[in-house]
């Protein structure tokens, strides 16, 4: 500095990059080589911003300075120049890019998002080098002021969808946003439906693929989970690995997933219905075997199933929280010993253990964790209906479920598309995965094209 | 208000709870036997109930000394009353949806089976697609016999009937209760298999039965046929008659039989491949023509095998004549006894809708001319025996 001038340099050590501040800001100030930055007053310059004392009221300037400090920036209060200068010196301390634990694949990229939103944006941009890829920055949460980005491909995403997503995000009134689930609960279409209308992923290649289909993504600072919308029922059975494997095996595995959904939802209820109300439907030998197993068991089938399903859920939840060292052993002990011991004690029949085990395993086949939760919830409802009214109860529940799914929409897209409304051309990537040369790579699915026509 | 209405409506789901039945509460009936004493009028039903505890346990071993089935004998003045009396001996609710055979005693069959069929049809969950058999003599020994190989006797009987239907001409397909009922209503005859207990030192418990190597003693046997007409048993057919009967009604199945041809005994295996029955009018009289094509195999023959095409053609002709003669003799025998086993009446009615009923009303079905034609063709010839 030419004269002795006092410049106050303020920053939060935990958020700002001390090295940058020491090497570039303080050193330059002390050596007097601090240069004026061009366009420092231009809106949109995120690196250096100047606010003169006269440009706003002192309270506002103070608030801006505080906000900048909390965002990790360095604030220079220059009384000689009657200004405050905000310098972008945010520390880039973040977790290493790793493969997400809940979305591991055999083949395909293994990169996953981190808690730093800028890093996540970079991972997407790296894959989608399209100048029309837009990221709209928002700040949501009165207390946390979390940075949220709405991402979409301008030429591809329907205008209606982008506008709807933006409106929903702007309408959020909350004190804190710590995870994308907070945002999801505000912007989803139906609060009381057990079925999710959005999905979350930690993989940038998945986000990229959905953006190319005209969908929107919501990135939240502080969490690696990105939200994607709109989502239909059948899309929850797709996995990114379907597109990294051959079409034949991908189709086969999709059918396995659909079949597993039915197993996970209906097997316990069918067991209860058939053993309690419709014994004539069973083959004779099976009836005799199940009857033999149930000799001496004090509980009715319905109670047995509900009890074992609840125990299974307890074991599952406990397994999530257990320390890794003992978690695996304890879960095996819990499953085997509990099941075996309960059968030998005559509390439950052996068939129940098999039913619950098959159901539990089938539950994990669906790639999306949030959809798996839906399966678990509706399974209990079907078991209760089966216990009350047998197959008729299951059918009533099924009709109700289908009616609910048909009425559900995800950002304007019918939830059961392309089955309802029917669009046979879209079935090539829903019920089967046709080889890539047969897919119309450039065109959107029909249900997304309909959104384009909306205003 | 809406929530209250919804809650009340949801409680209607609870109304189905009274239909709940636990499996442990059911008596799984595998075979039903029905008897009627002509002297006292006393009716008896035998329910053979599966013992689930005796089946393979969760550990994989059979359940010790427990019998696979228990036979409950319940008597009463009528079949309907027996339903109410059943729980004087039965500790569980009767569940007849899985029974596999109905056995009627010979004396009950001779008295008439209308009541029996009516009783079974009126069961809420009883099935009419179950085979019916007639017991030779008293019913109790048949219902109290353990069978080797198949732990549940009803499984044994069902399996044998299936094999006999497929692999022989001893048993036909139309032996189910519903077939009997339909045919009786159409005034047609039906032939039901006869079941008896093989004599010998019968093992007294299932454990002894399971460890007895001689499967022939104390076992059930299915042979011969009971002719049922107008809901009554009117006679029997021996094994040879059964073969001709099933050929004449068009049943499929292979049968090996020894023939006497030109003084030589010859074991031939025959299988019906084509069958046609029709009725025409000839000289103002109905003529029923029965034509069948049989494929013959001499691979089981060890005494005589044709050596040339000429011999084969000759043998074919002779066998055809022999079988035709046998069939005509069988028809004459049944005609004399008044058994319309060839369904002459039904054929005339269906093929001659205008003139047929008039003829039958004015005359007798015995006056209908019957022509039987058999075409025999050798398909497989061969023997390892040197001639």
Helical segment tally of chain B? 12
What is the N-to-C succession of helices and strands of chain B? HEEEHEEHHEHHHEHEEHEEEHHHE
Low-confidence segments of chain B, ≥5 residues, pLDDT <50? Answer: 57-61
Tell me the radius of gyration of chain B: 26 Å
Short recap of the structure:
Chain A is of the alpha+beta class and 455 residues long. Chain A has helices spanning 18-31, 58-70, 117-127, 159-170, 180-187, 204-212, 247-276, 284-294, 301-321, 324-344, 350-363, 369-407, 446-452, and strands at residues 7-10, 48-52, 74-78, 83-87, 133-140, 146-153, 199-201, 216-220, 226-229, 409-410, 413-414.
What does this structure look like?
The complex is a heterodimer of chains A (455) and B (387). Chain A has helices at residues 18-31, 58-70, 117-127, 159-170, 180-187, 204-212, 247-276, 284-294, 301-321, 324-344, 350-363, 369-407, 446-452; strands at 7-10, 48-52, 74-78, 83-87, 133-140, 146-153, 199-201, 216-220, 226-229, 409-410, 413-414. Chain A has 455 residues and is α+β, with helices and mostly antiparallel strands. In chain A, α9 crosses α11 and α9 packs across α12 (369-407). The radius of gyration of chain A is 28 Å and the shape is elongated. The N and C termini of chain A lie far apart (58 Å). With 387 residues, chain B is an alpha/beta fold. Chain B has two domains: 23-237, no CATH class; 253-380, Nutrient germinant receptor protein C, domain 3 (GMP Synthetase, Chain A, domain 3, 2-Layer Sandwich). In chain B, 31% of the residues lie in helices and 30% in strands. Chain B is built from twelve helices and 13 strands. In chain B, strands 1, 2, 3, 4, 5, 6, 7, 8 and 9 form a nine-stranded mixed sheet that branches. In chain B, strands 10-11-12-13 form a four-stranded mixed sheet. The longest helix of chain B is centred in the C-terminal third of the chain and has 29 residues, at 309-337. The relative contact order of chain B is 0.09. At the A-B interface, α8 and α12 of A face β1 of B.
């Amino acid at each position: 500095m030419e004269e002795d001038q006092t410049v106050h340099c303020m920053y939060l050590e935990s958020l700002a990059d001390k090295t940058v501040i020491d090497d570039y800001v303080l050193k330059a100030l002390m050596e007097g080589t601090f240069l004026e930055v061009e366009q420092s007053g231009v809106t949109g310059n995120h690196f250096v911003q100047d606010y003169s004392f006269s440009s706003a009221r002192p309270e506002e300037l103070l608030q801006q300075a505080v906000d900048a400090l909390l965002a990790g920036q360095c604030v220079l209060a220059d009384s000689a120049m009657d200004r405050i200068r905000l310098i972008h010196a945010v520390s880039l301390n973040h977790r290493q890019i790793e493969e997400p634990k809940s979305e591991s694949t055999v083949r395909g990229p293994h990169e996953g998002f981190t808690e730093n939103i800028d890093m996540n944006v970079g991972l997407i941009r790296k894959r989608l080098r399209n100048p029309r890829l837009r990221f709209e920055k928002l700040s949501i949460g009165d207390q946390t002021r979390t940075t949220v980005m709405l991402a979409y491909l301008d030429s591809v995403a329907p205008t209606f969808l982008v506008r709807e997503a933006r409106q929903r995000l702007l309408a959020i009134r909350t004190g804190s946003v710590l995870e994308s689930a907070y945002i999801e609960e505000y912007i989803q279409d139906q609060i009381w439906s057990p079925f999710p209308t959005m999905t979350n992923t930690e993989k940038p290649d998945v986000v990229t693929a959905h953006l190319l289909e005209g969908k929107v993504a919501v990135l939240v600072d502080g969490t690696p989970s990105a939200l994607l919308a709109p989502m239909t029922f059948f899309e929850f059975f797709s996995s990114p690995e379907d597109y990294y494997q051959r079409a034949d095996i991908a189709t086969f595995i999709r059918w396995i997933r659909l079949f597993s959904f039915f197993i996970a939802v209906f097997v316990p209820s069918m067991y209860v219905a058939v053993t309690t109300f419709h014994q004539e439907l069973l083959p004779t030998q099976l009836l005799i075997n199940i009857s033999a197993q149930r000799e001496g068991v004090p509980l009715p089938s319905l109670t047995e199933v509900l009890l074992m399903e609840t125990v299974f859920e307890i074991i599952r939840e406990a397994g999530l929280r257990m320390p890794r060292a003992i978690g695996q052993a304890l879960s095996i002990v819990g499953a085997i010993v509990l099941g075996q011991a309960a059968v030998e004690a005559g509390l439950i029949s052996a068939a129940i253990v098999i039913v619950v085990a098959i159901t539990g395993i089938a539950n994990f086949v669906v790639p999306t964790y949030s959809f798996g939760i839906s399966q678990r919830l509706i399974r209990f409802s079907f078991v209760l209906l089966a216990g009350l009214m047998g197959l008729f109860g299951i059918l009533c529940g099924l009709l109700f479920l289908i009616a609910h799914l048909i009425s559900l929409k995800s950002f304007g897209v019918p939830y059961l598309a392309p089955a309802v409304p029917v669009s046979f051309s879209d079935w090539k990537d829903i019920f089967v995965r046709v080889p890539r040369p047969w897919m119309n790579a450039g065109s959107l699915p029909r249900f997304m094209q309909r959104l384009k026509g909306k205003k | 208000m809406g929530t209250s209405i919804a809650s009340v409506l949801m409680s209607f789901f609870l109304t189905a709870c009274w239909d709940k039945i636990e499996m442990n509460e059911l008596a799984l009936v595998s075979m039903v036997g029905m008897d009627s004493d002509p002297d006292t009028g006393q009716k008896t039903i035998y329910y053979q109930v599966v013992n689930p505890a005796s089946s393979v346990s969760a550990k994989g071993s059979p359940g010790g000394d427990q019998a696979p089935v228990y036979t409950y004998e319940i008597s009463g003045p009528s079949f309907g009353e027996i339903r109410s009396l059943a729980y004087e001996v039965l500790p569980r609710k009767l569940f007849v949806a899985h029974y596999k055979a109905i056995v009627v005693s010979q004396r009950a069959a001779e008295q008439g089976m209308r009541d029996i069929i009516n009783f079974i049809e009126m069961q809420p969950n009883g099935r009419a697609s179950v085979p019916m058999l007639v017991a030779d003599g008293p019913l109790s020994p048949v219902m109290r016999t353990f069978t080797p190989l198949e732990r549940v006797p009803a499984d044994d009987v069902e399996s044998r009937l299936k094999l006999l239907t497929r692999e022989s001409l001893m048993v036909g397909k139309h032996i189910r209760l519903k077939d009997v009922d339909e045919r009786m209503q159409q005034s047609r005859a039906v032939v039901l298999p006869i079941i008896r207990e093989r004599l010998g030192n019968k093992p007294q418990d299932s454990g002894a039965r399971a460890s007895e190597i001689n499967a022939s003693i104390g076992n059930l046997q299915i042979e011969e046929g009971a002719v049922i007409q107008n809901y009554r048993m009117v006679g029997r057919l021996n094994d040879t008659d059964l073969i001709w009967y099933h050929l004449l009604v068009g049943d499929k199945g292979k049968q090996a039989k020894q023939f006497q041809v030109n003084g030589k005994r010859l074991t031939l295996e025959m299988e019906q491949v084509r069958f046609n029955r029709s009725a025409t009018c000839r000289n103002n009289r109905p003529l029923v023509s029965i034509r069948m094509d049989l494929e013959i195999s001499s691979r089981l023959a060890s005494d005589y095998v044709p050596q040339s095409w000429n011999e084969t053609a000759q043998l074919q002709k002779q066998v055809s004549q022999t079988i035709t003669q046998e069939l005509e003799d069988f028809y004459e025998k049944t005609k004399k006894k008044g058994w319309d086993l060839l369904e002459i009446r039904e054929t005339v009615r269906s093929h001659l809708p205008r003139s047929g009923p008039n003829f039958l009303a004015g005359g007798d079905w015995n006056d209908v001319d019957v022509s039987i034609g058999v075409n025999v063709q050798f398909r497989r010839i061969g023997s390892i025996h040197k001639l």
